[in-house]
Design brief:
Blueprint lengths: L17 H17 L7 H24 L3 H27 L5 H32 L2
Length: 134
């Protein structure tokens, strides 16, 4: 069942956003997947992937807490950049034999969903900005 905008729950804080919730789930999945990487990767790919994954949800939260829609859009752009990093690093980890293909699929599927949600949120904010222009 689809909820109409009138009946949709009000987003009061970033934790109410589905995209933030999904980004947190992705970060957890990245932490779990990278815990199996060899110790010599702790300061390499493990660190990079974890930082980028955490950055997605963090930028969504920080943008939501900002004072303007323009700033919010800027932070959503940062989140998109971090998402692209996680996708790239996930593919590299699989190519290097550090990540099984089923784990790669799980991470990339989650990233794809987050990308769609980020685009939808960005488009909604842009429409709101455009409607307030004189």
């Amino acid at each position: 069942m689809r909820v109409s905008p009138v009946d949709a729950p009000k987003v009061r804080w970033y934790r109410d956003l589905i995209v933030w919730q999904k980004a947190m789930t992705l970060a957890e999945a990245v932490y779990r997947a990278t815990s199996q990487f060899p110790k010599e990767e702790v300061y390499g790919l493990v660190s990079q992937m974890r930082r980028a994954a955490v950055s997605i949800a963090s930028n969504i939260a920080e943008g939501h807490a900002r004072n303007s829609r323009g700033e919010y859009l800027q932070f959503l752009g940062h989140a998109r950049g971090s998402l692209a990093e996680v996708e790239t690093q996930t593919i590299l980890a699989t190519r290097l034999g550090l990540l099984p293909t089923d784990a790669e699929k799980q991470l990339l599927d989650g990233a794809s969903e987050i990308g769609r949600l980020l685009n939808g949120l960005r488009d909604s904010l842009k429409r709101q900005l455009d409607s307030t222009d004189p």
